[in-house]
Amino acid sequence: MVKPINEDFSAAGQVTPEELEQIAKDGFQSVLNLRSPDEQGFVKDEPQIAESLGLNYANAPFNPASADEKKIAEILAKLDQLPKPTLIHCAGGLRASAIAIFSIAKQQELTALQALEKARSAGFDYSANPKLQQLIEQWFSAKVGS
C-alpha cells in the first residue's frame, strides 16, 4: 500500500508489477528500492519493469542495523538525483518512510520531533522497529551536533 508523505515522496512495502503500473499512471517519475538483492522477496526484474513503464529506477540497499550517517547521506544523494514524485519502497514501508523523512527534514530543517510527527501523521510508527528508531534518533542528534 502506497502512503503519501508529501508532494515529492510516498512510501510503500514491496511493490508488485501492477502497483508499479499504477504509480506510473498516477504521475510518479521515479522508484527508489531500499531492499538488498539478498533479501527474501527481492524482485530481480523490478528495474526492467519500472523502466518499461517510463519510471526512473534506483536501488540503494538500506539496513538500519548496519547503517551509519555516511550510508544515509549516500542514499539521500541518490534520492536527490531522482525526478519527483518518487515512490520509495522496502519490504514493509518503515525504512522507506524513514529515508523520506530524513530527506524532508534536511530540506525543511525540521527537528527530530517535527519529523517524527510528520511520519506518524502519514501512518508510520517506528516503535515496532527499535533499530530503525534508534538510527533516526542518532541521525538527528548528529545533525544537531554538526
Could you tell me the strand content as a percent range?
5-15%
Which regions have little confidence, pLDDT < 50, spanning 5+ residues? none
Under CATH, the topology can be stated as Protein-Tyrosine Phosphatase, Chain A
Return the domain count.
1
Kindly state the number of beta strands.
5
Named CATH architecture? Alpha-Beta Complex
| CATH class category | Alpha Beta
The secondary-structure element order is EEHEHEHEHHH
Structural class, by secondary structure, is alpha/beta
The largest β sheet comes out as: 5 strands, mixed
* Overall pLDDT level: 90
Rg calc: 14 Å
User: How many H/I helical runs?
Assistant: 6
Identify the strand order in the major beta sheet. 1-2-5-3-4
Distance between the termini: 36 Å
> Would you identify the CATH H-level superfamily?
Protein tyrosine phosphatase superfamily
Molecular structure report:
This protein is α/β, with parallel strands linked by helices and 146 residues long. It has a single domain (3-145), classed as Protein-Tyrosine Phosphatase, Chain A, CATH 3.90.190. The chain is built from 6 helices and 5 strands. A 5-stranded mixed beta sheet has the order 1-2-5-3-4, with helices on both faces. The mean pLDDT is 90.
